[in-house]
Specification:
Layout (H helix, E strand, L loop, with lengths): L1 H11 L7 E5 L5 H8 L3 E6 L2 H12 L3 H6 E5 L5 H4 L5 E7 L9 H10 E12 L6 H5 L3 H7 L4 E3 L5 E3 L3 H10 L4 E7 L16 H11 L11 E7 L2
Parallel strand pairs: 1-2, 1-4, 2-3, 4-5
Antiparallel strand pairs: 5-9, 6-7, 8-9
């Protein structure tokens, strides 16, 4: 996903431009910190205290210049309008968040308002069109059948969450003024890997295969996650 995001940023903005980045639901700050290291001004928004502590610990170990470029804000992603003026950011990230939001439309509209004209909105969501695949590969036939007509599922932590279908999100992005520019699949081949699985010796080859599949039909359509990139008109 990081490679996909970099591809879109490089293709949209002048080389060397320091971008204003908002990462909503930043978690441990992996992407936010990576982009701060690349020279961008990054604001990370997170409401989970444990995640915020981990992000601050990671940031504290960085050189002063990187620490100055990254700000961490404890807040709900739906409150961006309280903290920032419309059009304040060139890039807005919302990765792995929508599945935990029962009514995502207000959040999406708020994210789009944060974008400057021509700005990039990056969403990472659970693919509602492939929910039957994981239980089917595990031999859970009843679970697979139930998933075909459903966008709700139980994740690996046992939480009852939701998924998004590509067609539905495409329409929503058009409606909030950040129409879909391109989309990728994420975890085409590796969605059944257990959390904490050690990287294989041929990790680079695995990543190359995932990257190729994530941009190639029909493989990207059955990925466990979708990476959608919208552009503010």
């Amino acid at each position: 996903m990081a490679r996909q995001l970099d591809e879109q940023m490089v293709g949209r903005f002048p080389v060397g431009k320091r971008l204003r980045v908002l990462d909503v639901g930043m978690g441990r700050g992996t992407q936010a910190l990576r982009l701060a290291r690349a020279g961008h001004q990054v604001t990370g928004v997170e409401r989970d205290a444990t995640m915020i502590a981990a992000a601050r610990d990671a940031l504290a170990g960085q050189p002063e210049g990187i620490r100055e470029r990254m700000r961490i804000l404890e807040s709900d992603g739906r409150d961006t309008g309280v903290h920032f003026l419309p059009g304040s950011f060139d890039v807005v990230l919302c990765h792995g968040v929508l599945m935990y939001v029962e009514e995502p439309d207000p959040l999406l509209a708020g994210l789009a308002r944060m974008l400057a004209p021509g700005g990039l909105l990056s969403l990472l969501v659970r693919n509602g069109d492939s929910l039957a695949l994981r239980p089917g590969l595990y031999g859970d036939w009843a679970g697979a059948l139930a998933a075909f007509d459903n966008t709700e599922y139980t994740d690996r932590l046992g939480l009852h969450v939701r998924a998004d279908r590509l067609a539905t999100l495409t329409a929503k992005l058009a409606g909030i003024g950040a129409p879909l520019h391109t989309w990728y699949g994420v975890r085409v081949f590796t969605d059944t890997a257990s959390d904490g699985t050690a990287p294989p010796d041929d990790l680079e080859t695995l990543l190359a295969a995932e990257e190729r599949a994530g941009r190639t039909d029909p493989y990207r359509g059955i990925a466990g996650l979708l990476h959608l990139c919208g552009v503010r008109g």
